Amino acid sequence: xxxxxxxxxxxxxxxxxxxxxxxxxxxxxxxxxxxxxxxxxxxxxxxxxxxxxxxxxxxxxxxxxxxxxxxxxxxxxxxxxxxxxxxxxxxxxxxxxxxxxxxxxxxxxxxxxxxxxxxxxxxxxxxxxxxxxxxxxxxxxxxxxxxxxxxxxxxxxxxxxxxxxxxxxxxxxxxxxxxxxxxxxxxxxxxxxxxxxxxxxxxxxxxxxxxxxxxxxxxxxxxxxxxxxxxxxxxxxxxxxxxxxxxxxxxxxxxxxxxxxxxxxxxxxxxxxxxxxxxxxxxxxxxxxxxxxxxxxxxxxxxxxxxxxxxxxxxxxxxxxxxxxxxxxxxx
Length: 332
Known about the structure:
Oligomer: single chain
Mean pLDDT: 86
Number of strands: 13
Number of helices: 10
Radius of gyration: 22 Å
Strand content: 15-25%
Shape: elongated
């Protein structure tokens, strides 16, 4: 499972593969990369950060809900999925004896047309008919996940260590919380909601999309707490990056991250400044790669002229032949 809209960016790392696009909004706004080469994520989980890993039981394009339980029951992917589940969850040769079904519906599908409880019921019915495992909502050995998209239904077993989708659902989420070696632990980082930390998988996808190279001069003019430049230095081998923000607390946290990079590698350098993105203290045609998670239209609002001014300044400092990637969750 990778960030929505970035499935093709990740596909080169898992070829051969098939990319299934998720929803346009909500928790289902992710892409699914169906591949047989994801085992290296078990031995090198930080090599390519992803949102989550599932053992695929089945993907059923265009299936009606009343046919889902039969499709799950007769799936030929159960045995290889359980082999993966045992290996990733260190269960050796143990067979599950109890299970629970957890479901998620795309926000693009009307709740009046399809209820999450109906999807979970179909998943549970198909699983029980196949294995006769006892259903247990709290003391379960295996969790079976059903994700209902506009294109079809995807069924899988969670492999990501420590991830229980049902527990995340109770906290208003679904996918596991990602951790990054390029970010300090929460004990050293007092970031509140006003300074969100971008998922490492999103950072990786955006940096990969920008084609970041070790020799590039990279800049993030609205860096927040510095997630993108830190990942560029740590994971992509950049030697130097510039970043800044107009929020004093965010700049302080970005400085903290720049110091934390010194414990990971002596080479990378990250300079952090407090500035206005509409008037950057940089000369024209300077930056090779400019990448930004723009909060306007996402976590905040801004007048259209402010966005135009910011993008014009981005264009000014970008070198000829340079690359710019701007992330906006919704139009402004």
